[in-house]
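From the shared-data thread, chain only:
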Amino acid sequence: MSSALARTLPTLGRAFRGIVWTALFAVLAAGAAGLIAQATHTPGTPARADLTSEGDAVLNARLDQATSRLEAIAASVDGLADTAKTALEEIASSDQTKLQDGLQHGTELATSITTATTALRAALAGLPGDEPDATLRYSNDTLVRRAAVLAALDAAAGLQGNWEQVTARALEASKVTELIGEHDQVVLDAAAKGRGRQYADAAATLDQAILTIASVQEQRTKLIADTGQTVLDAWIARNRDYDVALQALYLALHQSGGQVTVKVQAARRAEREAFDQLPPDRRTIIVIMAEVARGGLTQAVLAIEDARGRLEDALAEAVPGPGESGAPSATEAPGGTEAPAQTLAPGESNVPLP
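Structure, as tokens:
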């Protein structure tokens, strides 16, 4: 062996041993870092699910029951919201039977919602999860779910008052529709008497139509806060003018004994001018009802629809995902750790043989 080779071998040995020790230190350092990282995982995170599994199981069991009951409440809220929108549409109908039936159905739904939410709130008294150390005892997902359940309950709790407002405003608005219908029928009755040459009776009948107009005016003041000119104001003014003009014509005919005098001709011209100012069809009534609805009915209907949306959003968070309920998921072993997946041999079945 040459002297150069003798000097080189010890040097290579020291270099090799240095590489080995460096690699070993790196492995030990990585392991230590892993231990430190594992030690610093806080309860409530997936990395330390074993520390919260017991609390999660207890709390999720109650949340499962509450969510099931909330889903039933949500179905009733859906029905209430749909009924409220239907009431908004039916107030302009000449047949108020559907409106009355709808309001009765909505009242039954609102009562059932109130009863169910009150009972559920009582059942959730003392619900775990609000302790000072809750973040250490329960996972974050479970606490989020708990908050969603309570938010859903709050969204449903105030619907009784909203529905009572819908009912009150719808009945008031339908009263306007009813009064307008009564007015039109009275005018038709007076016209029929006029055609029968019962001029005095026709004129007296129109007194009732004029009083009905006054009742519509009272409802307008109650239902519409806007002091400016509205379509309902125009309807009131034009129909009142026509009623007065038609009554004057019948009185003139009564005084003349049915003869066409100068006074009768003048009254006839005034009646025709007033008639030409009347709304051409019932579409005006729909516009009137839209104005009346803005006086509070629409806001109440929208409040119910908003509550339905908040309830749906909260339930979307309250419904547990895979493995979020009290029982472990299919790949989760008791204690919160993940069980190793089993690999099947070709042709092997998951079903055990007898």
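Residues 43 and 136 are 5 Å apart (CA to CA).
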